[in-house]
Amino acid sequence: NGFFTYDPGFVSTAACDSAITYIDGGKGVLLHRGFPIDVLAEKSDYLESCYLLLHGELPTAEEYEAFKRTITNHTMVHESMHQFFEGFHHNAHPMAKMCGAVGSLSAFYHDDLDITNEKHRITAAYRLIAKMPTLAAMCYKHHVGQPVLYPDNSLGYAENFLRMMFGTPCEDYKVNPILAKAMDRIFLLHADHEQNASTSTVRLAGSSGANPYACIAAGIATLWGPAHGGANEAVLQMLEEIGTEDNIDAYIEKAKDKNDPFRLMGFGHRVYKNFDPRARVMKKTCDEVFAELGVENDPLLRIAKRLEKIALEDPYFVEKKLYPNVDFYSGIIMKAIGIPTDMFTVIFAVGRTVGWISHWHEMISQGTRIGRPRQLYTGYAERDYVEVKDR
Ligand code: CMC
């Protein structure tokens, strides 16, 4: 009818219907296919939750075994990908490499893909879930100049990833099971979060009929920003910069200062106006990892906990309902695992891949229209062209 609503930042616009993830931001509730995130973190694991997100139900024992077998079938990437990585500067940010590497999968798996065929869509989803850890580890190995390790399909998802990250051909690398469990939980806690910026990007890209590998690459690009997935990297940098508990107050004041662009990283959320339930699980996981590793009084964890306490009592953060989000504690755990800071957002991308591809699959199944936002035009009315000699 010619009327449309103006909603910059999509604060109050629902652009789709979805049965995958439910969030009640006021109450701090997050459900995947009806199951609370803390229950999944406690009782499920990443791959089972992938099945749940993608297929809508928890798998039976047989379905789960078959799913794991299929995922492990797809863990390798085409050998040409090794040369592809050689094209990057070794010092490039791993997220830059991930955007390129994942986008390039369309060059290998595009021709036989019919996105209108459900089986093809599921195969693309399985390929992506399986290959993301391999590509993420390749980014890291390329950066440190070590040979790439092929996946070991006898290992679990997170265990295999950690072996590809830290193992070398010279030794029989054994992954610490405590760290593998923590890694798996980090993947799970990042698996989906309904219509966040990167998922919306994947949906918008996919709405044109673009192939899923290119759509996921678009999601990775969106995730990179510090307001979104890049926040986990920024949190750790902030905690290291704060350095000692004495400096916390100054950073709190900086975050409150309207004339200073600095924000408390890992705090605040568009939807949660209460605790982010993922942050609660992440904090608990952090304590468990340090306890099991026998690390007492980790300086970064101490600063993070103190910072959280001060912020939660400060009227600025209380009035604006700013609570710790998923990124606040994840970096501290990843650091304990030995993952370098610039790989943190890559880890987020690995975990989120199932969410992106589940939304893409759901959208295509629904038979969507191309996404095409409107605008309020604020430029010139029609005017006369002025010849260059007269300007
Ligand atoms: N520190 C200080 N002030 C903040 C913060 C913060 N972390 N977050 C929001 N505010 C203030 C903001 O200045 C604004 O104040 P005012 O109303 O006086 O202008 C008010 O709170 C509302 O903020 P907003 O920017 O309008 O809220 P938004 O929904 O557009 O942005 C956000 C949400 C997550 C981008 C923002 O809270 C932020 O920048 N947080 C820090 C970055 C971060 O941790 N991002 C990870 C998000 S969770 C995981 C993910 O999505 O990847």
UniProtKB/TrEMBL annotation:
PROSITE patterns: CITRATE_SYNTHASE
Pfam families per UniProt: Citrate_synt
Keywords: Acyltransferase, Transferase, Tricarboxylic acid cycle
Swiss-Prot/TrEMBL catalytic activity: oxaloacetate + acetyl-CoA + H2O = citrate + CoA + H(+)
Active site per UniProt: H269, D327
Example of a GO MF term: citrate synthase activity
Entries under InterPro entries matching the protein: Citrate_synth-like_lrg_a-sub, Citrate_synth-like_sm_a-sub, Citrate_synthase, Citrate_synthase_AS, Citrate_synthase_bac-typ, Citrate_synthase_sf, Citrate_synthase_typ-I
Annotated SUPFAM superfamilies: Citrate synthase
Signal sequence, start to end: none
Pathway noted in the entry: Carbohydrate metabolism; tricarboxylic acid cycle; isocitrate from oxaloacetate: step 1/2
GO annotation, cellular component aspect: cytoplasm
Family note: Belongs to the citrate synthase family.
Name of the protein in question: Citrate synthase
Record organism: Marinagarivorans cellulosilyticus
